[in-house]
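Quick one, tokens below:
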């Protein structure tokens, strides 16, 4: 499996390109900037075809590149059905936090807990993990979890934005994310990757 991360905005947001192998279809998870040219260069280098755009949640720094990727590839945008309703607020966030004026079209595909997103030979399972946002979701695929801003290396996502809840995020982590094996690798929305074993030992929020 190919997993490549890109940090393309001032908030340090991770965008991921995920594919089963070179020369096949791929998903772009959380396109994070208006200028996605490094992603396009990687796509060309590995002869990939963008077939899916997946947002782990609605926040502006995770959706800023939706239109650039969609215009270049005609790939549909996937988001949890709850967060899809918040998307107009992301335009305000983009201007406030990144100084970017961007019109965001509605998502193409609204998903929910348990849905499967097929990207070539890869099957992403949607796990509804609210707390950072009401419709935040984690994507499970082949021993990996793309956790968005729910669980990150050494910390958790903030819960003071619209739709956030500390109780919900802790429930999402304890009951859903930590249900996966310790060796599961997490790829978060900010910061480096980790494993669930490392987070159980080192993340202070999991010691509470």
């Amino acid at each position: 499996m190919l997993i490549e991360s890109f940090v393309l905005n001032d908030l340090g947001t991770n965008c991921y390109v995920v594919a089963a192998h070179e020369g096949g279809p791929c998903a772009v998870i959380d396109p994070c900037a208006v200028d996605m040219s490094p992603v396009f260069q990687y796509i060309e280098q590995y002869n990939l075809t963008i077939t899916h755009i997946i947002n782990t949640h609605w926040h502006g720094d995770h959706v800023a590149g939706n239109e650039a990727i969609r215009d270049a590839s005609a790939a549909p945008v996937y988001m949890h059905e709850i967060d899809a309703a918040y998307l107009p607020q992301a335009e305000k966030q983009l201007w406030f936090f990144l100084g970017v004026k961007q019109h965001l079209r509605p998502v193409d595909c609204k998903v929910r807990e348990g849905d499967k997103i097929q990207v070539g030979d890869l099957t992403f399972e949607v796990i509804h993990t609210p707390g950072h946002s009401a419709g935040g979701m984690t994507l499970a695929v082949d021993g990996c979890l793309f956790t968005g801003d729910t669980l990150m290396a050494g910390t958790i996502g903030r819960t003071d934005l619209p739709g956030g809840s500390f109780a919900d995020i802790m429930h999402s982590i304890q009951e859903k994310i930590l249900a996966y094996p310790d060796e599961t690798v997490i790829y978060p929305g900010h910061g480096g990757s980790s494993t669930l074993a490392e987070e159980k030992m080192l993340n202070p929020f999991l010691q509470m």
